[in-house]
Amino acid sequence: MVENEKPWPEPAPDWPSARKTWKLAWPFHIYLFTALNVLVVIRGTYDLVKRGKTHSRRKDHRFLMNLLLILFGFSRTMYLLWNPYESDPDVAKTVLVICIVTFGIGTACIVSAFSFVLLIVLESTRISLAPSKFQNRGFLLGLSIVNILYVIVSDLIVANFHEAKAMIIVCQVMFAAWGFLIAIGFITAAARLWRNLKASRQTSQYDPVLAAESKKVRRLVSLLYSSSFCGVLMFSTIVYSAFGATGVNNESGLVRSWPWIAVKTLMRTLEVLMCLLIYLVALKTRTSKPTKNNQISNDSTLERVNCSTQTF
């Protein structure tokens, strides 16, 4: 098939042959990840309903984090149920483009949620990794909006002009680069918390309350390292998808069935795991109402451990 006759320039399996090869693996993949993404939506909605007014009144970053995860889960659910991976050859081009745009918006939402939960951690622990004009809600929100707009514009352009397919690679690299920076932020915050925790061990030996709180901080540190590792894997998979056999530079337009579904399954698994880790990290870092000097008060666990380290 001539490239300009293709509905979308990214390569895909030979669908009739691939479905026969995969057998039950195909519907299992679709409905498993649909169900998991529905759970993401339910969890985010529950938190918004339960604490929505509190989050909104305090301008808690969890409000935007939950909203972004809900949008992510909803977009993935709609994408997988409507036209999964553009596998229906008879679908209208308008529907195809809507599905592709929906998928891209979902990716932008999970990357944004990943960055907002890091901001929660940094403000809860009073750790600074960047100048204040970059480490704030307004900057991250603006960056999220820019990324979503770029996804929409680039997908609409590429859908009508395949020669502009490099915009897809730019979009994937942009998400990966942003994600890698956030992953580095997680591992840096975890390292600083661990260093502080080690310095406070001598004091915690004689203070049972501080010892119990230090244990909670160790759990948070483990979650931060896990989030960083998951982020590196997920964004590395995006880079592989951009430049590997599944990228737009594959001139054949076709990919082998099993490697293709393996990459997609890995990517969907990492996305769901990322959502879980975001929720867990947010639970372990509770920010309270901003003080008069616009600083965020720490969770008692982090506050006492940090205060104890300042005496050394």
What can you see in these coordinates?
By secondary structure, this protein is mainly α. The protein has a single domain (15-288), classed as Rhopdopsin 7-helix transmembrane proteins. It has ten helices and no strands. It has helices at residues 15-22, 25-58, 61-82, 93-125, 137-160, 166-199, 201-204, 208-243, 257-284, 300-309. Helix 4 runs parallel beside helix 6. It starts with 14 loop residues before the first helix and ends with a helix.
Number of strands: 0
Number of discrete helical segments = 10
Q: List low-pLDDT spans.
A: 287-301, 303-312
The 3D shape can be described as elongated
At CATH's second level, what is the architecture?
Up-down Bundle
Main sheet properties: none
Order of helices and strands: HHHHHHHHHH
State mean pLDDT (0 to 100 scale).
83
Oligomer: single chain
CATH superfamily placement: Rhodopsin 7-helix transmembrane proteins
Number of structurally distinct domains: 1
CATH class: Mainly Alpha
CATH topology annotation: Rhopdopsin 7-helix transmembrane proteins
**Computed structural class:** mainly alpha
Q: Could you tell me the radius of gyration in angstroms?
A: 22 Å
Strand fraction band?
under 5%
Helix fraction, binned, reads over 70%
Distance between the termini: 70 Å
